[in-house]
Amino acid sequence: MNAELKPLNLSENNFMIISKLFNHPGVSQIELNRLIYRNHSIISKQIKRLQNMGYVEMKVDPANKTKRQLFLTDKGIAVNSKVQLIQASVNHWIVAELSESDRENFENILKQIFSNKNTEIQDILLS
């Protein structure tokens, strides 16, 4: 997927942040860490990079002045549309050789793995 994102000057890590911020505008960096399951320092670096590129902005939470909220800029929203098309294309490529039944089984297995590991992953990342 990195090869497809390269013309946009993005990586998979950037893509995941953009995608999550599109679906969860105003999240804090801690909440974003939980959504992406990445190390805090990696997320911090990627957010800074995306801010410098004009895709993400950080605002003070009006309800809690000590909390910072993350939002996509108009430029970030526009690039999200492009990366979603890339993701759909890559996802289709991954399962293209599978029958419909195998695709459903594959999706169910991934959901089960993710469900079983969700708490464990959060414990590791937040410790």
UniProtKB/TrEMBL annotation:
InterPro entries hit by this protein: HTH_MarR-typ, WH-like_DNA-bd_sf, WH_DNA-bd_sf
Sorted UniProt keywords: DNA-binding, Transcription, Transcription regulation
The UniProt record lists the keyword Cell inner membrane: no
Record-linked Gene3D superfamilies: Winged helix-like DNA-binding domain superfamily/Winged helix DNA-binding domain
Domain HTH marR-type: 1-115
GO molecular function per UniProt: DNA binding; DNA-binding transcription factor activity
Annotated protein name in UniProt: HTH marR-type domain-containing protein
Organism: Agrilactobacillus composti DSM 18527 = JCM 14202
